[in-house]
Amino acid sequence: MKVLAINGSPRKKHNTGLLLEWALAGAASKGATTELIHLKDYRYTGCLSCFACKKIGGSSYGRCAVKDELTPILEKAHEAEALVIGSPIYLSTESAFARAFLERLGFQYILYSKIKGPLSPKKKGVALVYAMNISEDLLEPSGTGAVIKVTKSLMERLFAPCEVLLSCDTLQFDDYSAYDTDMWDSAAKRRRREEVFPLELEKAFAIGQRLAG
Question: What pTM does this model have?
């Protein structure tokens, strides 16, 4: 079984990246073959609204026609039996890296049809992993909760029931005193990093095990 993780964070080894690594470790513990792709390493665009993926009889029907460095990654996502997509939350939504990927991944499969369903591979295991600076109580007031629900709904429309892991109130800096961050309690941030984040890593590991199982 192949489990593919997509990291939409520009920081490979920070919160989102670590959660994805643990998810893949969980999948590997069940015998899965795993791969982690960092989107920041590639040059690509979001959807160009060419609609070639919906043109009846067209050579790109059901698949993204844009050819750039994301093209082989979309192919890997198409072929993988399980998919874990991770992103930090910036300004209440996914990173630009992740949004562009999600546009290209999802729109290629969706048809403007009342009769035909999406052209995506069904029953693909899928999970979403989010890391964010805000606390849980700000998810709904900030609009972040609504954004996550929309993306979850898209994944379930395209593939299968989707698990979501939220890592909130994350540690952003090693030295908070070096930045204008007086609104944050840096000591509390560090305590949460030491006490809560390890539990979230374990949840990511368990998600990977379930996807591979």
Answer: 0.96
